[in-house]
Model the fold of this input.
Amino acid sequence: MSKIVKVHNLSVSVNNHEIIKDLSIEISEGEIICVTGSTGAGKTTFLRVVTGLIPELYKDFKIDGEISIFGLSPSEALHRGLVAYVPQDVYSFFIGSTPREELAAIGIESCCSDIDLDKDIDRLSDGQLYRFLLNTALVGGAKVIAIDEPLSHIDWWSVEKVFEYLKSFAESNKLVIIVAEHRIDLIKNFCSSIVKLDASTTECPNLPKLGARNNVTSTAIELRDVHITYNYEHILKGITMSIGFGEAIAITGRNGCGKTTLLNILAGIAKPSKGFVNISKRTKLFMVPQNPVYWFPSASVEDVAKLFARKCKFDGNIENVLSVFNLDRDSKKNVYSLSVGKARLLSMALAHISNSSTIIVDEPTLGLDCKSKKILVDIFNKFLENEKTVIVATHDLSFAKLFNTVYILEKGKLMKGQ
Done:
């Protein structure tokens, strides 16, 4: 098999901060290579270098060493359409307002039979958008496809099917697929080889359970027979639930089942088409959306935290807060330069600073390694010790199992898990 990608002694740095050091790898046609490492280890940076986005779009990086795609530089390969990148942040790569407009803009006639191509992009779930981007990359003619953190977007029920298809597609079309992923244990059987960018572990066997209160006496949020209909589509059907102060609730389900819509109802952001919603006057809500980076002001991590502290009248030590959330080394970085995982940790730090009584988080483990997940669980437990309520939506079943109460959303209906 011919070698398509050749990387020799690759080092990448930005602002004198070394991200990747002396990485060498060769990848043959038909292979799926999995790249793993801790949050901020350089996985996304490596994919962007391979696909020419660094330095074509991201100019401040310094690249040393040699890297070639079919004997071309990554920038040349990018301009010839030989490489494609499926980003972790799905919302940053759309041009059109619907999938059909997007296909027209990039010159693809048809794709993705399981997605409504005329639906507004902001009405599709994160997972549906990711599958759309993945499919357009596959049918677009590229020979090297870089896929960033797919398990953050693909639900547990679909992982094996998706990767069986990717493996078959790579082999039959003689192309290379490079996957950056934390949860390598779920896809390692599909990988020709695994490249570790640091010594971090890829499995999280000992995360503690969440210690929610058993004797909940007062209600924070109550839903009764809630329905949501949009353009004749019945998204939520008769949702009834009561969430008390000090409870920890996980809501799970397939991509596009309505998890984010339900969180928006619980947060008071969206109104039901039918039904009753009651949010206690004692409830001070803080919601972390799936893509929190878009509501950060453009400033350093430390400045954003201090600004938030002033608005929330938080009198704690900001340096200590950033240290707890493993952000002390990132305090001077602009928030828009953070990895998705680090941005997730910053959003949770702001939730802590807000001193809210109810924390709602959409896909909390997005971009997080084992160490960061442990930090997240410890923070959630501190919230619960102070009788705060934690509500998350996730398709990470291993994380959902840490919660005392798990709901499954399927075909618009909510069921209590075992």
